[in-house]
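Students often ask why we bother encoding 3D structure as a string. The short answer is that it lets us treat folding as translation between two languages. Here is a chain of 302 residues written in the first language.
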Amino acid sequence: MIALPPVASTAAEAALQLGPLALLALLYARRAHALSDGGHRVPRWREACFYGGCATIAVALSSLGGASEELLYAHMIEHLLLGDIAALLIVLGLTGPLLAPVLRISFFDRLRRLSHPAVAFPLWAVDLYVWHLPVLYQAALRHAAVHALQHSMFLALGINMWMCLFGPLPKPAWFGNLGKLFYIVAVRLTGTVLGNIFLWSGSAFYPFYSHGDAVFHISPVTDQNLAGAIMMVEESLLTLGLFCWLFLRAAREGEERQDLLDFAHSQGLELTEARAARAVAAGRGAELRRRLESRTGAAEGT
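And here it is in the second language, the structure alphabet:
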């Protein structure tokens, strides 16, 4: 039987973590409803992703909270759900119009600099490794406020890390498909190194779990190795999915870019390959096509 943490501690963590989550979901729903009334409805699949991300957070914090106090591998599942899966789903649920009111606030607008790939990746990597240092990791297990801060940083910097790939904010010109490939490899390699440390270590890093390991008749090292194995499997599956997405994206963009060039050539319009590539990469291929068509219509009218 799992020895649950004190009721006061559990209640405090629920208030610190699930309360802001409920507020975030409410604000998202209000903004999405306002956009729908204005004729700019958020795609349903994006709404499903966002609410799915919120549900993933709630499940991780409520269903695994007790077990994560006793077993390291259960805590690893909790952190992967928060920092990887939930963060990814939330980013997939965002659009430019949804974020517009937030970005009008100067403080949040300045925070956009953190979503630059050269900034987002090191922030995420440092956060991941620093929180797994024994002194900070076990402090989070012993103190509800520190635990809430740990979870908040895993989620926030996970969202910031995914924004570089899937977010609606502008990307630097150099961050094309090749840049995204290197970014994915760097992120996954960083997580893989940490997973290997847990998987192959012969000594336990966190004495806090000794009681839970004894209750469940598992050695601390085995518990730690299981945590590393879980992290490695999750990293592998996520990496495979990201590579498939990037391959399909590159194929789709190549086809769309060529269609634009062919259309411009057939209509006698000037369109460079670089301009077509920039428009497609920014998701504005259809907009560029309409501009070309309007130029064709204007020429025919004269």
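Translate back mentally: The chain is about 80% helix and 0% strand. Keep this in mind for the problem set.
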